[in-house]
Amino acid sequence: MSDLGFVSPQSLHFAEPLALRSGQQLADYTIVYETYGTLNAERSNAVLVCHALNASHHVAGRYENQARSEGWWNNLVGPGKPLDTDRFFVIGISNPGSCFGSTGPMHPNPASASGRPYGADFPVMTVEDWVDAQARVIDRLGIDTLAGVLGGSLGGMQALAWALRHPTRLRQCIAVATAPNLSAQNIAFNEVARRAIVTDPDFHGGHFYEHGVVPRRGLTVARMIGHITYLSDDAMEAKFGRDLHAAALGYTTRDTEFQIESYLRHQGDKFSEYFDANSYLLITRALDYFDPAREHGGDLTATFAAARCRFQLVSFSTDWRFAPARSREIVKALVDNQLDVSYAEIDAPHGHDAFLLEDPRYHGVLRASFDNLAREVGATGAAP
Fold first, then answer.
1. Residue tagged active-site, from 58, 319, 350, 359
2. Among this protein's residues, is 166 annotated catalytic?
């Protein structure tokens, strides 16, 4: 196996407004994306990768002259890897509202005569809105049907939404470590994180750009809260236990005393240096809103009656934020509709973050799934 080497982002501009579920619209916007591999003559081997909260279009490969610039799913996507770019044309897209190039809250609001950034005025986005925006990119690339749509966590919700909103445009949905909606506990975690941001004195009602400041304290705390939920108790215990940050207890209520405290602060500080506060609010709210069964009286079986593609679902035993039971709810709904579904529940100690890691059993499941898909679409170099 080898890496993709250096890759470059591309962008597409859309003048036609995108109608949003809120009743608003996003006008005159740009979407940034990357592609890896080669689209075959039949245009049948394209796989869309949907990103989670703090990821982007940069799925795999590296940027030239940038240290530590590997794509966020580089262990999964590339030549000879489970999602093999020698066989598939892989597409990564930064969703509108993110802070990695696609039009978002930090960009100029076309409705503002002064060119003021959107800030808090950026329209609320939903998972379904993102999927519709992605479909426009796929249209521009001249692709009618995707071989597959893959995503983990929030990306998995987008993959599910593809199967429901554009059921004839994908052959397979691969949804990893995801859920049909957020539990009340998950919504609560998101709300606490949002409150940390909006109560930061440097937030300025979402228009902090004009003040030349960033609500770093709020972003740091928000990331610390989120990061706790991505790890399992076992993973935290194995990595940190009750190890002290210094040689001895300092008997202080303000400074870090334990290694886990130091780790969380480091992760939060690092996050606050590159992520946009308004994007964080917008993306976590999109997580909260995702609930396709709401339009069917909460009946998940009725919801998935519209689906036509094959499904591969994966969950992880210690993922308490998107527990295996939530994936099983989806599996049951698919089975009730007599749809083709495979399900793998991986016994892994890493918690929710397991979907980003190189677990050989997990990668084996995805490799087998993509091998089958490659044979189905006649992708070059498919296994016999």
1. 319
2. no
